[in-house]
Amino acid sequence: MGQADFRHLNRDGRWLGWRFSNVTVDGDGRATLTPLAAGPGVAVPAGEAPAPAGVLKSGSGALWWSSPATGTLCRIGPCGDDDTACAGPELVEPRGLAAARERGLVWLADPGLSRVLLLRSDGSLVQAIGAPGAPGGPDAPPGTLSGPSDVETDARGAVYVLDPPNARIQKFSPTGQVRSAFWRRMRVDGLVRDPRAITSRAGQDGFELLVLDGAARAVFAFDETGAPIGGDGRPLDLGAAGASTAICAAGRLLYVGDAARNAILAFRLDGGEPAFAGTVPGYAGPASALSACADGDVWVLGAGGTPVRLAASGGFGTRGAMWTGPVSAREPQLVWSRLRSKIDSLGEHSAFRIYVATSRGTDAPPVDPAAPEPFGPPWHALAPNVPAGYIGAEPAPNLWVGIVLSGDGRGSPQLSQLRVEYNQLSYLPLLPRIYREPSLRETNRDDFLLRFLSLVESFMDDASGAIASLDRLFAEEGAPPEALPWLAELLGLAPAEDWSVAKLRRAVAGASAADALRGTAAGLRSSLIEAIGGVAPVIEDGAGAGIWIAPGAASPDDAGRCCGGSCGCDRACGCTVDGERTWIDSDDARLGFTTYLAAVEPYGAVLDVSATLDHTHLIDEDRVFEPLFAETASRVSIRLPPGALTEEREAAIRAVLAREGPAHVSFEIHSAATGGRLGLAMLGVETVLGGPPPPAALGGAPRGRVGQGLALGRAATL
């Protein structure tokens, strides 16, 4: 098989020369359907179109929403502390909400009061703007409000008020002065005749006020002076929406509540065709209010009156197209052989199809991204969801490539690489010469053999690719999620069904190190922490590990020498080591510096038969010179902090012990009790060291000391 000549159609994550319709290139250079917000799976029965209302996630983290039916304004604080109606002025029909420039304040439009109110977090009134008046149409006196239903603000604090009874939008200063020039400029072009809703966004050239006009069934964009952006307001046709009820802008997308479809639709604001991007998955129901947050989340207020959060990511558009060309070469008799693509993820919720066209001229074949079939004749379609195929057209110097991406809103193809090969003979040179006639460059040749060999080559490429990527299955960081359970079983792990992919990946990555510590206290502790959710247990053997004892006798070589500062004297006290070290509770004693804990014999002292206590022998004759407490050497105690031992955690601990505990060791599980048990306490678990008690009176008895000179009941009180 000869060496193939090829050209990549994208390099370094860039798709130069490509045109996109409802397709986005992500940060990794992968082409996907336009990302959309996604709901939590809420379904609300369809009904009458809800009355406009308001919902807002303020910069302080508080969530506000209005209820026109009950005349209340509700708020949930950043910590979820206020789920009640706010106190304040009596509201009649609260609707639209907007964040004020001052932190913690919100603007509220109330058509029942014919006013727009500035409210604090507790609902108390700060300011009211607008003068109530009877409807007078677009020529009503400036500043008059007859039924304001929506409100927006800009970065300078200016307030934009939608007044449907007067079919106009007015602008007010932060202090409430009307800016009549705004509406005069907006009405010059006659674009707005029946304003239904407003929203705003930060566009490329600054503030943009987006106005939904019911008569035109379109959205128009205006700047802060009232002038239409682009001269024509950059109209966005909402023909896909049957009955628009609410709008909000989030980045380059406009979300529209559609009462006819009982759904939320997404439209692109970048001017591409078609403008319709798709339906937001995970939410089915009407929308009386929509609001976008700075983090990309969208809040929707449905018919039930409870706000629902739509996550910033998780959804995708339902259909998109991308195309490029001409891809040219210098050879006039160029034969385009194969096209290869790399699809990183193709789940059950997405699909794609590749189209190609060749020509001797430079005239591009027609493309209609809004049509059901964007690539008609002379485009040639490869099989659906096939990443590679044989082009097989007549020799021509120019090639065009088109791709249609589709999905159900919950997934998208992720196209990361695309290349074309030319003058490729596939496996043809490996066959007898009789199969190589006529020549590849002859126009009267039969392509059947080349197409058949191309199909075989595709199968071989798939097998070769799977073999080449086998090493990924053994790499904990690069293994695909579906390979992790198999890899965990190979490493002897027993993952639970509820383990997340991240937790399973960590367990696989640390399996080798964990196996080296299996059966040790450190390994057991690590496994227990992982099993019980981060709570650190205390593991003790039965010999009494953790008992505090005074150090034993010094060696004979130390007798008569200076203490070396062990008593805290900084070698200045002149005292000598007398063969017995004790703990001294002095003013400058520091644990770990001037005092220390002695090690314990793991199995206790070794006694002979002469050892007696109150005329009673401590051991039997047949156990002479055996360590005391040898029978407890294989007993291990596991203690958790007070209140941490639950039935679920105890079951998890026993499961770990059954799997990893040494066979000759018995275990006891306890919950540590708080208290001050000197000599048996676990520092940091059941005991906190504190300072000594002060004297009861000035010049009273000195505080007790543990160590030299201790007389329980006289010099010290425990």
Keywords:
single chain; 718 residues; mainly beta; Neuraminidase; five-stranded antiparallel beta sheet; four-stranded antiparallel beta sheet; 7 helices; 10% helix; flat; disordered C terminus; NHL_repeat; Phage tail protein; 6-blade_b-propeller_TolB-like; repeat; Unchr_phage_tail-like
Oligomer class: single chain
Q: What's the count of strands?
A: 43
Name of the CATH homologous superfamily of the domain at 48-247: TolB, C-terminal domain
Terminal Cα separation, in Å?
92 Å
Percentage of β-strand residues: 25-35%
CATH topology of the domain at 48-247: Neuraminidase
Q: Specify the helix fraction band.
A: 10-25%
The CATH class of the domain at 48-247: Mainly Beta
Known CATH architecture of the domain at 48-247? 6 Propeller
Radius of gyration: 39 Å
Number of helices: 7
Please identify the structural class as seen in this structure. mainly beta
Give the secondary structure arrangement, pairings included.
Elements: E1 5-8, E2 19-21, E3 23-25, E4 31-33, E5 35-38, E6 42-43, E7 55-57, E8 63-67, E9 72-76, E10 84-85, E11 97-99, E12 106-110, E13 115-119, E14 125-129, E15 131-132, E16 144-145, E17 150-153, E18 159-163, E19 168-172, H1 180-186, E20 195-203, E21 206-213, E22 218-222, E23 236-237, E24 244-250, E25 253-258, E26 263-268, E27 276-279, E28 283-284, E29 289-292, E30 298-301, E31 307-316, E32 319-328, E33 336-343, E34 350-359, E35 380-381, E36 388-390, E37 398-407, E38 415-422, H2 448-468, H3 484-490, H4 501-509, H5 511-516, H6 521-531, E39 538-541, E40 612-613, E41 616-617, E42 635-640, H7 647-660, E43 666-671
Parallel strand pairs: 6-28, 15-16, 42-43
Antiparallel strand pairs: 1-38, 2-32, 3-4, 5-31, 7-8, 8-9, 9-10, 11-12, 12-13, 13-14, 17-18, 18-19, 20-21, 21-22, 22-23, 24-25, 25-26, 26-27, 29-30, 30-31, 32-37, 33-36, 33-38, 34-35, 34-37, 39-42, 40-41
